[in-house]
Amino acid sequence: MRSVPAGRDFGAAGPLPARPKRAPVQTGLDVLRAQGFAPLKGKRVGLVTNHTGRARDGAAAIDLLSDVPGVKLVALFSPEHGIRGILDAKVPSQVDERTGLPINSLYGETQRPTAAMLEGLDAIVIDLQDIGARFYTYTTTTAYVMEEAAKAKLPVFLLDRPNPVNGWQIEGPALDKESTGFTGYFPAMPIRHGMTLGEMAKLFNGENKIGADLTVVPMKNWRRDDWYDDTTLPWINPSPNMRNMNEAALYTGIGAIEGTNVSVGRGTDTPFEHVGAPWIDGVQLADVLNARGVAGVRFYPVRFTPLSSKYANQECQGVFIIVTERAALRPVRVGLEIASAISRLYPAQYQLDLAARLFGSRDTLARIRTGDDPAEIAASWGAAEARWRLLRSKYLLYP
Fold first, then answer.
1. In CATH, what number is assigned to the domain containing residue 47?
2. Neighbours of 43 (CB within 10 A)
3. How much is the pLDDT for 82?
């Protein structure tokens, strides 16, 4: 594992040291563009993308492929949140206003491209920005597209992008086989997987024997210890409630418990940076969590009223999470500590079982229920994390 450079943390005091001069990170789209889109020449192409599919200079993948001589962009495919990334509900199929192309929803009546959607295509291109969490649905959409493309004997070109929360830190319990589904495609994957979408596509294709004719167009100049802000690529919200690097850093832990009956800040200006409910005493919860001395974070009590989503228009009390040292942060451990504290303080109100789908580990939830020390629970993930590290090693593309 690489060590994370010192002084690059959210909470570092004083001026940050100068960054060493590096060549700019180029995404898979940038690389393919520099090649003149040569692998796609003469093909009728379907593009799986959304608002995150942009080149370094801001040019959209849809526009670039529409304008390439010798390439015929004939269909678009939209994941969760829609082609523009603004929907928090089922996504309808529609027509793209600029190009007039059909937009086939993969988060509506079907989560897979149908034979009719794929008819007349010669290739599928995927360009999506992942967030580094097992339950982020763009991962499963990619896998389902590969499965259907393999059946239709269509080649798949995946344009790779950074893992925003770096590509070496791995954390969390393995996904139970019983919990696999749209928010967890691959059993044995921990919550924080430490891979790019291109690397995961290679792993899925190899380990699940999908049989897709897969070409990953790798990035240039990305390193495994890079966080997104190291790349100097412009931040684009991958989904409506993923608005900054602080939220991305916390998401693998806070997102893991959002299925329970607490608000994680959806409907506020700072989703995934605070947790609460009308029945929580925020001062009490903050005191308990700070007493735990969890590395990389501090908690302070807050009151907030979500305007939508869970507890809409109800005042909640809870905690706001400050990342004090990103290098030390273990976000899944943070989510575990919060769930454990709420379970101990409010056993009659807290519906911990609702975390099963996203946390993905029945053993972890059972140990929370019985009051085991969260540090011991997190340590028990070590064997699964090590197995994942070994499994993924043959699919890694970057140093």
1. 3.40.50.12170
2. 21
3. 79
